[in-house]
Amino acid sequence: MRRVFLIGLASLPLLAACTLPGEAPPAPPPVQVVFFTEDSAALDEAAQGVVAQVARAAQAQPGAPVQVLGFADPDGGRAYNQALSAARAENVAAALRAQGIAPARIRVAPRGPVPFEMMPLESRRVEIRIGQEQVTP
Hints:
Residues 23-134 form the OmpA-like domain. InterPro entries: Bact_OuterMem_StrucFunc, OMP_bac, OmpA-like, OmpA-like_sf. Helix content is 38%, strand content 19%. It contains 3 helices and 4 strands. The chain has helices at 2-17, 45-59, 78-98, and strands at residues 31-35, 66-72, 106-113, 125-130. Strand 2 (66-72), helix 3 (78-98) and strand 3 form a beta-alpha-beta unit. The longest helix is centred in the middle third of the chain and has 21 residues, at 78-98. It is globular, with a radius of gyration of 20 Å.
């Protein structure tokens, strides 16, 4: 009897982690993406629109951190692309600050060059995430 009780007691954490049928686990925060032209860190009109949309979403979640991750395509030198990804992320962060997002909420992480699947444009981007505590380097 005692063994059954201990097994039942030990399984409580597992049962607590289960969701009921029909209950989906919470979705991860959406990722908004700003794309850049080759060798550029300048925000075009479309990029400014994405930043404005993200700023509105961030203002609706005043305590949530805002992650800004910069990327570059693999063409060129690694150091150049690391600096370019940093400039892209910094420019997006500056635009978010200009839209009223507190600097203390913004975390910038340049990722440097990354390969692309279909088009180089995929690698020339900044990802913006609201509500994630920390993104691994």
